Structure of Acyl dehydratase:
Amino acid sequence: MPDSSTKELQPEERHPVQQRGLYFEEFDLKALYQHRPGRTVTEADNVLFTTMTMNTQSLHLDAAWSATQPFGERLVNSMFTLSTMVGSSVAQLTQGTIVANLGFSAVTFPHPLHHGDTLYSETIVTDKRLSKSRPGQGIITLEHRGRNQHGVIVGTAVRTVLVWCRGAAE
């Protein structure tokens, strides 16, 4: 029950809070950003992503053939793993504050992701600097890691992004 000494605010009287990523100044070199919730990957996810991207790799689509291969089953498309690792970071880190994705390096998949696994992603900031050629913007280097439900690393990627500085995008 509301306190009788305070008036109930109408929607137009409330100040808006919009979800966004971080501005350049807010990226913390000491933080471990954990992106939640995790994403349990289904067979349908893998088949849809694989066929949607025109990837005809039998290791993702052909159960009979994959059963004869070293892992004994179809594996989740590594590009799905990468996309989900990065995608899960957007709301927390770059939603509405990114100017451009500048590139990826050092992408690895040290352990396969299987149908039914849950992918948990995390990010650390390894470098940040103001842009020399674009006032009001900064360059952030992010190291993304994806782990399965057992904590095993299934993917890593270093990504460089250009983001707005606070106040410059308005």
Q: What stands out?
A: Residues 24 and 165 are 5 Å apart (CA to CA). The longest strand covers residues 118-130. DSSP finds five helices and five strands in the chain.
